[in-house]
UniProtKB/TrEMBL annotation:
Chief location: cytoplasm
Biological role: Involved in protein export. Acts as a chaperone by maintaining the newly synthesized protein in an open conformation. Functions as a peptidyl-prolyl cis-trans isomerase.
Cross-referenced PANTHER family: TRIGGER FACTOR CHAPERONE AND PEPTIDYL-PROLYL CIS/TRANS ISOMERASE (PTHR30560), TRIGGER FACTOR-LIKE PROTEIN TIG, CHLOROPLASTIC (PTHR30560:SF3)
Species this chain originates from: Azospirillum rugosum
Enzyme class: isomerase
Protein name: Trigger factor
UniProt xrefs under Gene3D superfamilies: 3.10.50.40, Trigger factor ribosome-binding domain, Trigger factor, C-terminal domain
Annotated keywords: Cell cycle, Cell division, Chaperone, Cytoplasm, Isomerase, Rotamase
Family designation: Belongs to the FKBP-type PPIase family. Tig subfamily.
InterPro entries per the UniProt record, alphabetical: PPIase_dom_sf, PPIase_FKBP_dom, Trig_fac, Trigger_fac_C, Trigger_fac_C_sf, Trigger_fac_ribosome-bd_bac, Trigger_fac_ribosome-bd_sf, Trigger_fact/SurA_dom_sf
Length: 444
């Protein structure tokens, strides 16, 4: 085998590899000998089929396998001999091959850059922290009580308000014609919940129990029922009763609804949950600061192919957002400006990913099987009743498993760096803690 470097440009390398006809023939003969031991053909005892017969019958497929193996083995050898750490799979292009002759191909690779992590002990970061006050606990418990509300009659003499439940009889007609499904008895309609055609509930606000109202609405033009598309419809409505949602009382009985023995235990659980939420946000804020400082403090070339892959993923998602009308301010920007902006983001992501990977490699930071199993169980719990399918999917999909492993590894490396950095806690209000840093930057 002869290997020649033909090009070196930054992190890109290109090699020409020539594999001799003799080496290829050795691989072919080796594969034929393996087949001879296992193949069964009529008229021959197992292991006694002449090589010439096997070659005649299987020669084409054996040669293809031998060439594939020769390219794979020689490319690995070329990389190993030169101690190259590649960023992506090599690009192989066969230049020349005729049966019985030498095989020549080119191999293009992109290398991982040499990275020298900075002094993490010199990093100084500010971690915002917020205390859990009793008002937040009160509000959270009140929301739990509202979630366990019950319907009670409106006893005072007043008209219906948004949020009330009007128990109604109704019958609708289109051009004087009654259609199936346009009437109902004792229907509990929550006003303002937008359960019915737009405009229907609004016209019942202000009605009293026992009152009759005529409600006129126009169905949307894209309504699935052809007869009702864009049709003006008249409903005769009798408001029979008004009800309202009454939150459950905040007491020990409410706590027992959530599996707690007392209201105080419920409040403790709520307090711990809020504290955990605040801690997660604090970590996200300090992690963002850290990544910003790492990006500012490390400048090295990144493999263009990795940037292309990252950019293409970002760009595809952006195109979906533009199509769905969820792209925000990006919707009004020229395409070239967007491409420049997001290619810069892609390059930053790749550079940070390579830096964190190098820190993890140098410090032997690994994701244990237990950590991966816990993440897999957490993922499966997101799909109740489909846990087995989730486990099977990850078992059969190595890339999906790697996608599960990657954020765990990143968090472990971030924790490793934070342990060395100087992190100063800064007390802030809850509003300050929860404020979106991007919005703050935009305002500034």
């Amino acid at each position: 085998m002869n290997i020649t470097e033909t090009s070196a440009d930054g992190l890109k390398r290109e090699y020409k590899v020539v594999i001799s006809a003799q080496d290829i023939e050795q691989k072919v003969q080796g594969r034929l000998d393996e087949l001879r031991q296992t193949v069964q053909l009529p008229g021959f005892r197992p292991g006694k089929v002449p090589v010439a017969v096997i070659k005649q019958r299987y020669g084409g497929s054996v040669l293809a396998e031998a060439l594939e193996d020769a390219i794979a083995d020689s490319s690995r050898q070329a990389l190993s001999e030169r101690g190259l750490r590649i960023a992506m799979q090599p690009k192989i292009e066969v230049e020349k091959y005729e049966q019985g002759g030498d095989l020549s191909y080119t191999m293009g690779v992109e290398l991982l850059p040499d990275i020298e992590p900075g002094d993490f002990a010199a990093l100084e970061l500010e971690k915002p922290v917020a205390e859990v006050d009793e008002t937040a606990v009160d509000e959270a418990v009140a929301r739990l009580a509202s979630a366990h509300s019950v319907q009670a009659p409106v006893t005072e003499d007043r008209p219906a308000e948004k949020g009330d439940i009007a128990v109604i009889d109704f019958a609708g007609t289109v051009g004087g014609e009654a259609l199936p499904g346009m009437d109902g008895k004792d229907y509990p309609l929550e006003l303002g919940a937008n359960q019915f055609v737009p405009g229907f509930e609004d016209q019942l606000v202000g009605a009293k129990a026992g009152e009759h109202r005529t409600v006129t609405v126009t169905f949307p033009a894209d309504y699935p029922h052809d007869r009702l598309k864009g049709a003006e419809t008249v409903f005769e409505v009798d408001v029979k009763e008004l009800r309202k949602n009454v939150p459950a009382e905040v007491n020990d009985d409410l706590a027992k609804e959530f599996g707690m023995e007392s209201l105080e235990k419920l409040r403790e659980a709520v307090r711990d949950r809020i504290k955990s939420e605040y801690a997660n946000v604090s970590r996200l804020r300090v992690k963002r600061q850290l990544l910003d400082k790492l990006a500012e403090g490390h400048s090295f070339e990144v493999p263009p192919g990795m940037v292309d892959i990252e950019f293409n993923g970002i760009w595809e998602r952006l195109q979906e957002e533009l199509k769905n009308g969820t792209a925000g301010e990006d919707a009004g920007k020229p395409e070239e400006e967007l491409k420049t902006e997001y290619r810069g983001i892609a390059e930053r992501r790749v550079r940070l990913g390579l830096l964190l990977s190098e820190v993890g490699r140098r410090n032997n930071i690994q994701v244990s099987q237990d950590e991966l199993n816990r993440a897999l169980i957490a993922e499966a719990r997101r799909f109740p009743g489909q846990e087995r399918q989730v486990f099977d999917f990850f078992k059969q999909n190595q890339q999906a498993l790697e996608n599960l492993r990657a954020p765990i590894f990143e968090d472990k490396v971030v924790d490793f760096i934070l342990d060395q950095a100087k992190v100063n806690e800064k007390p802030v209000s809850v509003d300050e803690l929860m404020k979106d840093p991007d919005e703050e930057a935009a305002a500034a």
